[in-house]
Specification:
This protein is α/β, with parallel strands linked by helices. It has 12 helices and 5 strands. The structure holds adenosine-5'-diphosphate and magnesium ion (MG).
Length: 262
């Protein structure tokens, strides 16, 4: 009889796809026989397994969807390398309140100063906090949008860019953006305006945006939407990448100069 009930229970768990509970059932029953917890406690503990498994699956799903570069943490960011960067602004962004406010962040600085790293850190934090995030480069965004326009998938693509609560647009300004591409970027940004957050990184100071876009009116319109509710992080220091190279070269130098060939 007890066996039949057990079979029925397993059948239910299978039918309801409660696989985490099914996995834990035998040890959980064994522990319950021994410890005799209250019914409510037993049930709550059992359900916790399933809730955790579902959350883990969803987290993995959001992470796969987000296409973020490899995970980095704020602890790995060396603030001493960027003394002009306002650490409090970064830490404030890291609370993710800007996503709740549907506000933006603009990261401006030359190559190698950690713009992608900071954007990635924010992206991973947001995924872990349960937000839908998507990472793309500006070049990829406009290429995909232009293709979609040609192939009659404009509305679907616009819905796609509108979907994530945080859209990260990396590397604006490395490639010039002719009229139509600029207009596509503008449409993505203006549709998200006050609706979803954008973290945008660029190597060009705001005064320089005319040089990215052929059309300065579009540049002004994009900036207007982006900056209305935005934190601007200006990173002016040395390239961290170059610094690493320099350190490596300096480390070799005594060997080079002090060696037998000196
Ligand atoms: P950017 O996007 O501004 O060109 P990246 O974010 O790609 O620069 O940074 C270049 C490399 O240097 C990456 O490997 C990044 O992790 C590292 N890096 C940059 N700035 C820092 C920093 N302040 N602390 C630690 N690592 C950094
Ligand atoms: Mg970068």
């Amino acid at each position: 009889m007890a066996d039949t009930v057990y079979q029925q229970l397993r059948g239910h768990l299978h039918h309801l796809k409660l696989t985490a509970i099914a996995d834990q059932l035998a040890p959980a029953l064994e522990a319950a026989e021994r410890d005799k917890p209250p019914y409510t406690q037993f049930l709550a503990d059992l359900l916790t397994h399933e809730v955790q498994a579902v959350e883990q699956r969803r987290l993995q799903g959001r992470l796969r969807f987000a296409k973020l570069p490899a995970r980095k943490t704020l602890e790995q960011f060396d603030f001493t390398a960027q003394p002009n960067l306002d650490r409090r602004l970064v830490e404030d962004l890291a609370t993710l309140r800007f996503i709740e406010d549907r506000a933006n962040a603009l990261l401006i600085g030359p190559p190698g100063v950690g713009k992608t790293m900071l954007a990635t850190i924010l992206g991973h934090r947001a995924v872990e906090a349960g937000y839908r995030v998507y990472y793309t480069t500006a070049a990829d965004l406009v290429a995909r949008t232009s293709r979609a326009a040609l192939e009659g998938r404009w509305a679907t693509t616009m819905r796609f860019w509108n979907g994530p609560q945080l859209l990260i647009i990396d590397e604006l300004g490395y490639l010039p953006m002719p009229g139509e591409a600029a207009s596509h970027l503008f449409q993505v940004i203006s549709r998200r305006y006050e609706h979803g957050s954008i973290v945008l990184t660029t190597n060009r100071g705001i005064a320089d945006w005319g040089a990215i876009f052929e059309d300065t009116t579009v540049a002004a319109a994009i900036l207007d939407r982006l900056l209305h509710h935005a934190t601007v992080l200006s990173i002016t220091g040395d390239s961290y990448r170059m610094r690493a190279h320099r350190d490596a070269i300096n480390a070799l130098r005594p060997a080079i100069t002090g060696g037998e060939f000196s």
